[in-house]
Design goal:
By secondary structure, the protein is mainly α. Helices cover about 70% and strands about 0% of the residues. It contains 13 helices and two strands, in the order αββαααααααααααα. Helix 5 runs antiparallel to helix 8 and helix 6 packs parallel to helix 8. It starts with a helix and ends with a helix. The model has no long low-confidence stretch (mean pLDDT about 90).
Length: about 325
């Protein structure tokens, strides 16, 4: 009952907040102007949708969830991510400042125990810190940028995030991880409320604050639900849960390094752009990626108790 209450409250709060945030976006300086290299919209758009998701989800969680243990560091890491995201929405931070903010947030949550201790194929119940910390850091920063990259079409990042959060909720319920279950389902409510205004043609964008926040917290929750001492799941599951943003990173980053371009910079070489170049419309591209995300999430659920090798082979076949 608590789960449904928190989901419903986040949903209705976000739906109530979005129209207000649309109105004040100009005063806040959080408006996305058309014309940049990777932008597909033709008119100015509010970038305050992420604030609606964050506030709508945060209020019920602050009421229902005690902020102790690793949850305190998770909260601080989310605040850092959102603040740097808002600054980026407002003044367009350089890529070095973006990476600094993402790195700071990653270090904070790792200090609270959100770490990839059980690494695939190593056969170790606890990997050495010199190995697990750098891999966790790269995973967190990579996913934040991957989800940010995917926020290029109306409804895309929000819809795929909802699917990932629903899978995390299911895994958390089955492993009796009530905190992760509550956070993930509450976020589903917030993102659903935002999606009401973000489906094509969108009235509002989530902005970098929203996309980086979603990437960060989904990555953290994926680690938390699969890496706890009582978790029965494959250590590869976080890769499946965040498979599409990871695939985008794998595709884009080597090209940017080769061309000597800033890693977080804008372009039209991302996965959704490549699908669009095949002749599909905006709505069709989103539908195709929703289908691919559904396949990934279904595979992750069916393979949740299988070996790391089985999960890795499934993802390799998908990519």
């Amino acid at each position: 009952m608590e789960y449904l209450y928190s989901l419903s409250l986040a949903l209705f709060l976000t739906i109530a907040l979005i129209p207000l945030l649309i109105k004040v976006s100009g005063r806040l300086g959080l408006v996305d102007q058309p014309g940049a290299e990777r932008k597909v919209h033709s008119s100015a758009m509010p970038r305050t949708g992420g604030l609606g998701i964050i506030i709508g989800a945060a209020l019920p969680l602050l009421i229902l969830l005690p902020m102790d243990g690793y949850l305190r560091q998770l909260f601080i890491g989310c605040v850092i991510t959102v603040l740097f995201g808002l600054l980026d929405d407002r003044v367009e931070l350089s890529y070095l400042w973006k990476i600094f903010g993402q790195s700071l947030a990653a270090i904070v949550v790792m200090s609270g125990g959100i770490v990839l201790h059980h690494l695939p194929f190593l056969g170790l119940s606890d990997s050495p810190l010199w190995l697990s910390y750098p891999i966790t850091f790269l995973f967190l920063v990579g996913v934040v940028n991957g989800v940010n990259f995917s926020d290029g079409l109306d409804g895309l990042a929000a819809g795929t995030s909802i699917m990932a959060l629903l899978l995390i909720f299911t895994l958390a319920i089955q492993s009796e991880n009530s905190a992760v279950a509550l956070i993930s389902l509450t976020l589903v409510g917030g993102v659903l409320g935002f999606l009401r205004f973000n489906t094509f043609p969108a009235n509002i964008f989530m902005g970098d604050a929203g996309s980086q926040f979603l990437g960060f917290i989904i990555a953290c929750l994926a680690i938390a639900v699969t890496q706890s001492e009582i978790s029965p799941y494959s250590a590869w599951l976080p890769v499946l849960i965040l498979g599409i943003p990871i695939m985008d990173i794998i595709q884009v980053i080597p090209v940017r390094i080769y061309k000597k371009l800033p890693l977080p910079g804008p372009d039209k070489e991302h996965f959704h752009h490549q699908v669009g170049k095949l002749g599909f419309s905006h709505v069709e591209v989103v539908a195709i990626i929703y289908l691919l995300q559904t396949i990934l999430m279904t595979g992750a659920f069916l393979l949740r108790y299988e070996s790391d090798l089985a999960v890795a082979l499934f993802y390799a076949g998908f990519v």
